[in-house]
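Example 3.
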Amino acid sequence: MNKRDFLKDAILFFPAAGVLQALACKAEGKELSASTTTGYDQSQHWYGMGIDVDKCIGCNRCVEACKAENNVPSEPFFFRTWIERYTIKADGEVTVEGISTKTPEQRIAEQNQPIDPSVLRTFFVPKLCNQCAHPPCVQVCPVGATFQTKDGVVLVDETRCIGCRYCIQACPYGARYLNPFTRTADKCTFCYHRITKGMLPACVEVCPTEARIFGDLKAKSDRLVRFQRRNPISVLKPDLNTEPKVRYAKLDGEVR
Amino acid sequence: MKLREQLKRLGVIVGVFLIVVVTRFFLLPETWISAKPHQAAKVVREMAKPAHYAGAATCGNCHEEQYNTKVAGHHRTINCENCHGPAAAHVANKDDKDAVPPKHREREFCLNCHGFVPSRPNGFPQVDGDKHNARKKCVSCHDPHNPEPPETPTDCGGCHGRIARIKAVSTHSQLACTECHQVAPQHMLEPRSALPTKPEKREACARCHDTAATDPAASKARVDFSSHGRAFVCWECHYAHLPEGPK
């Protein structure tokens, strides 16, 4: 075979191989998208969560349940949901403290402290991904790994994520972290595998005081819709126009 | 034939354009062009993940008695899996000994929610764990499935409240009063007419505290009664209701 024949064959062979591979990929892609439509219709739902700040007792059970349900690393600095304690003093000083970073023993040891008269008010605020209607994290993802589903949940495709951390920087609520095992961004999914089966997210499931309420904002009669009607509702950082779907009831003005 | 040459070149340009268009819109798979198929695949994978928490109503299918007690009591808003942990594995295979949800008996477990913290909402039932029957397990008075506050004490503590409260935080908290005192039923009706007995001899303590004691419930705090403070009765130095002394 001379050089000229070899080049001719090569010109024919490589595009042909590419076309075959492309067709194979195409068939695979079709199969995946078809199975999504079986049984569950995404476009019929628009999920949200209601949080009654007055009811949270800071027991941290939601955090533990989230970690057990979603294989979140157990180290106390990886969270999909966490609880903050706000302490507002008479002189206007506001202290925010993450109680989920403490061990149960530490939390027990901090109980039964004498009451500090300089404290004006103090309360717990559960936090999680706000599942924004206009998510900044989705805008900044350079590879399209994070996206919003039709039912309003922001997910991260761990097979596409390159771990660049742009989304972690972009999230105004600090709701994302880099999973040390997969080296990809990870965040609350509203327990997508549960809610699509008609179950409640794990944190809502275990909340002892019903401080968390999960529901479908598209439904006409729904616990969350009723919750929104009956309570003064606010969201975190409304000025950013992210339109969070986590709605807080009776939220203190100091909470950021 | 200049025109032909121009047509030829135009043909090449159109041909290349057509190849690009055909490749882009017909040959290349969707996965190479758009993120949508990847995202759809991710949704499928996410939906297929297993749930570890079985859900609020599941436990009642088998544990009907506990479930019905719970939904009628103050703990009705608490899902079984809040205390007993994720139970989907137990529901799937109830014979699997490793998957049996734990029953927590330690005080710290209850105090996680019921210990006093000022940040908790007003009206939430809280206790000071150091003072509220510190050495007793919560479940010895409160049924976690129906945590009604226990009745006002009708036994010894009803009248001898101060002693009962002191004893409740001592190492003797688990001992019944009748372990050392014999109480005639008449004492409950007319207290002065039949007074309870008090231990008279060192042997009453030796039953548990002698190095040679054979009582299965004998104390860990043992002394040799043949040499330890022989000339005295025990309660001249040790107060039996708070043997370790005030903190």
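The mean pLDDT of chain A is 89. The first strand of chain A starts at residue 47 and ends at 52.
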